[in-house]
Please model this.
Amino acid sequence: MTQNIHLPPTLLTKIGDERYRLDLRGYTCPYPQLYTIKALSQIELGAILEIEIDNPPSTETVPRSIKNNGQEYLGTEKVGASHWIIRAKKTR
Model:
């Protein structure tokens, strides 16, 4: 399903060894889920992806998408009034 999804290159940034940030602030469903799965397919095995979101429903749908695609959901951290960071690890 994500084969046809184009992830804008400015959204995914390498922030360290095996660490990436996906800035999805301003995006609403279904883009956070689709872009998260696409980004996980593009990073190396074992890497951590930090997904920044400001869309409250995405705090539930993104973790579910991560798990449904066989990746490891590491948790969600609230960092502002309407700002969360969801962490995932690429496991396959």
About this structure: The chain has a mean pLDDT of 95. Residues 30-80 form one domain.
